Amino acid sequence: MRRVVLPVTLTFVGLGVAGVSLTVATTHSLWSLSGQATAGPVALLVPGLGAVMCGAAGLWRQPGTRFPYLLWLAGIAWLLVEWNNPETGSAVVFTVGLAFSAAYPAVVAHCALAWPDGVIAGRVGRAVVAAAYVGAVGLLGIAPALVFDPAAAGCFSCPDNLLRVGASVSDRFLDAGLRVAPFWAVAVVLVVGWRLARVSPAARRLVGPVAVPAAALVLLFGLQTARSVARGALAADPGDRSLWVAQSVALALMTCGVLLAWVRARRSRAALAQIVLDLSPGQSGEGLAGGLAISFGDPSLTLSYPLRDGRLVDRNGSELEETTEAQTPVVRGGETIALVGHRAGLFDDPTLVAELGSAAKLVLDNERLQAELQARLAELRGARARIVEVGDAERRRIERNLHDGAQQQLVGLAIRLRLARASASPELEERLEAAENDVRAALAQLRELAHGLFPVSLAEEGLAVALAELADGADAPVRVTRAPEGRFDQAVESAAYFLVAHITGRARTLSVDVHVDEGSLVVELSGEGLPNDGLTEIEDRIGAVDGSIAVEPGTISAVLPAIPIPS
Amino acid sequence: MTLRIVIADDETLLREGLARLLEDEGMAVVGKAANAQELLRRVELTRPDIAIVDIKMPPTHTDEGLVAAAAIRDGHPTVGVLVLSHYLDARYAMRLLGEHPEGVGYLLKERVSDVAVLVDALNRLHEGECVVDPTIVTRLLHRSREDDPLEQLSGREREVLALIAEGRSNGGICELLFLSPKTVETHVRNIFRKLGIDAGPGSHRRVQAVLTFLRA
User: Fold this and answer.
1) Which of A324, A450, A538, B139 has the least C-beta neighbours within 10 A?
2) Position A197 in a domain
3) A269 lies in a domain?
4) Residues A93 and A117 in one domain
């Protein structure tokens, strides 16, 4: 509702102001700029109402943007130029005219530097626009009006000046205003020129059509004031009228420039919409970036997504390095949702990226969420792999400690007992021998325990030897038909080994076939009495190395990545 | 004849204890070493009959002993080597025994207190046979696999072969299995014949039989 009410209200305000202006101009044409000029009413109404209606339309098109207000204000200010006519007959109209009839060049200067996002970039630009407002509204409008007494100035037909508060010294303010106006006008032109020279060609195509006519208008106004200094007031002689008509053309061109940019944006948006249609989520192998690369004719175009922890990932969630290539952020709600990497200059037109953000919203969100999900999955996988890795390292450490510590000491104890036996009484010797046997049994148990923790052959000799070893020591008949001799990543070897070890402990008979097939290490187990549950730890190990396991009656098979380690 | 022994173990307690045990058994411990380098120097200096080597020694405590054992076998073929290990893995032993396992033995470390086995093993080594720890032999004996070359042996013959692998003499086997020397000799002959080992002197044939047993 509000989306419609505001633009309509603004339009009617503009029509009202225009109506007053036209009435004043045509009924009291002697004092009017437009009244006597060729096609004067057209020069008054077309740029004024044009800017007003474009501004209103801009607000309806994209509510919440700032530039349309400025454009509307420029139109209103343009229309107020007639309101200071001494014969308006209305004190209100006359007073408003006194204060604001010269405001339009300042608003237009504001437009020139605030296009396209409604905010003036840079301190210099802001200073110059502020100077223009002070000069045009302050020195040429409100300040003289405060001290202007129409009757004292000899204008007996003039309505009352509602602003007047003091004696008539208005000439000094006006004089100062007219003298400084050319300076700020030139300053505006210089800043606009500097800005145009700095930006890329694409941005120039966007900024130029608005900023150049606007700067021309300000410059023409500067000329008008320069030739009015001697006269002490802005007036309406034929020279003024020509300059004014030229300004009217400039304002019309500026409005056209804004319209042109909006039409262009609409076109690129339509083109983007087509891309989005072509790219139903999850259909294209290349993703959104691939489609955009084709549409924009830039094969180097990439899309990356910032995660909350500051990392940058692609659509598969893989972390990306910092890049030196040009990157343009796609921002929504103050948050950067994606970065478009591209060749320099491609996205210098900021509206294009904004359009990309809204047109490709669904696909972009889909890819971003997908990327986040993938990144989080990768993190989890990494965490699981680390847990298994740490667990294995710990198993190996304990295995070594058992051998080097406890086992060593027990062997020492056995030797001491044996030495003690040599000098013991027969009765004592018997007891010492029993103790020695106990120690030996403890050693055997300790060895089995350590071997189960992490067999040294797996660490030192690899999978084939460790599996053969496992088969040797198994209670049930275990046959290893094939096992690759080469070494693989330790986590992969462990996963394969502990899978077989786990099943070996529970199956009645087991046949083990391990081979490398197209970059995968395939473990196939068949036999009698294979377990089909209680494999959680094994599944974790296999999952941690990105492998998979399939359990069927009578067979268990696992596919692991065969990451070879050069021996 | 007194066997001359060099002992290498980085644990003082084990080294000294083992030396005393062996001396009590009438052997001469002519050198002790705490690491592989020292061991090689002792062997060089004293030319012992047998070097007893712990597999794990400084600096990395992994297989320094194995490397040193191989070096002794290469440099001094007359010196027998008995490797002590914590590991039951037969493949570890196989690696040590290699193609020419004469005069090489592999015992579990705890065996050092089992003086009978130890002394028997040392004597067999000195005669050029090879010795494998009884526990490992038992483990290998009970494994089950297809295409087993030992399949053709009778149960009794397998037992005898296992005892040969443990480094028992025919006499020792007689005592352990309560058999007459003649019966044991028949079994041994049958084993050689069935495994296709017929060339060379007695000790060499025994080594071959053990190898066949280990690799089966």
Assistant:
1) A324
2) yes
3) no
4) yes
Supply φ then ψ for residue B26, to 5 degrees.
85, 20
With contacts defined as CB-CB under 8 Å, which chain B residues touch A415?
Answer: 13-14, 17-18, 21, 112-113
The chain A residue lying nearest B85, using CA atoms, is: A403
Number of domains in chain A: 4
**ipTM of this complex prediction, to 2 decimal places:** 0.81
Domain boundaries, chain B: 4-133, 144-215
What is the spatial distance between Cα A305 and Cα A327, in angstroms, rounded to a whole number?
A: 12
Q: Specify whether A422 is located in the same domain as A549.
A: no
Distance in Å, alpha carbon of A469 to nearest chain B alpha carbon = 6
Q: Is B24 on the interface with A (CB under 8 A)?
A: yes
The tens digit of pLDDT for each residue in A318-357 reads 888 776 667 778 877 778 888 888 776 666 566 667 767 7
Report the CATH number at residue A500.
Answer: 3.30.565.10
Q: What is the CA A340 to chain-centroid distance, rounded?
A: 8
Query: Which two three-digit tokens encode residue A71?
Result: 């454009």
CB-based contact B89 A478, cutoff 8 Å: no
Those residues whose C-beta lies under 8 Å from the C-beta of residue A120, and which sit 6 or more positions away, are A110, A113, A114, A126, A129
Same domain, A468 and A430: no
Residues A121 and A174 in one domain: yes
| Predicted local distance difference test score (pLDDT) of residue A220 | 92
DSSP-assigned beta bridge partners for residue B81: B51, B104
Distance set, CA B166 to CA B12, B54, B130, B135 (Å):
27, 19, 8, 9
d(CA B6, CA B80): 10
For the stretch A88-141, pLDDT in tens is: 778 888 888 888 888 899 999 998 888 877 888 788 889 999 999 998 888 888
Beta carbons of B87 and A417 less than 8 Å apart: no
The structure tokens listed for A31 are 């004092």
Residues A215 and A205 in one domain: yes
Q: What is the CATH number of domain B4-133?
A: 3.40.50.2300
Q: Are A430 and A536 contained in the same domain?
A: no
Are A227 and A176 contacting, i.e. CB atoms less than 8 angstroms apart? no
Report how far Cα A2 is from the mean position of its chain's Cα atoms: 29
Say if residue A198 is in the same domain as residue A245. yes
Residue type, A470: L
Q: Which helix (H) or strand (E) holds A319?
A: none
Residues of the domain holding A205: 2-262
For residue A51, what are the contacts with CB-CB under 8 A and spacing of at least 6? A71, A72, A74, A75, A78, A251, A254, A255
Write out pLDDT tens, residues A263-300.
877 777 677 667 666 665 545 566 778 777 776 667 77
Domain B144-215 has CATH 3.40.50.360: no
Q: Please indicate whether, in this complex, the C-beta atoms of A472 and B20 are within 8 angstroms of each other.
A: no
The answer to whether A445 contacts chain B (CB < 8 Å) is: no
Measured between alpha carbons, how far is B124 from B203 in angstroms, rounded to an integer? 9
Among A337, A358, A381, give the residue marking a domain's end.
A381
- Summarised one tens digit per residue, pLDDT across range A388-433 is 889 889 998 898 888 878 888 898 898 889 888 888 888 999 999 8
Residue A270 lies in a domain: no
Last residue of a domain, one of A400, A433, A453: A453
Look up the CATH number of the domain holding residue A258.
1.20.1070
CB A230: neighbour CB atoms within 10 A?
7
CB of B53 within 8 A of CB of B82?
yes
Handedness of CA A302, A61, A271, A196 (dihedral sign): negative
| Ramachandran sector of residue A534 (left: φ over 0; alpha: ψ -120 to 50; beta: rest) | left
Mean pLDDT across A44-54: 88
Confirm if B32 and B42 have CB atoms less than 8 A apart.
yes
A330 with A256, same domain: the answer is no
Distance CA(B177)–CA(B187), nearest Å, equals 12
- To the nearest 10°, the Cα dihedral for A313, A318, A319, A320? -70
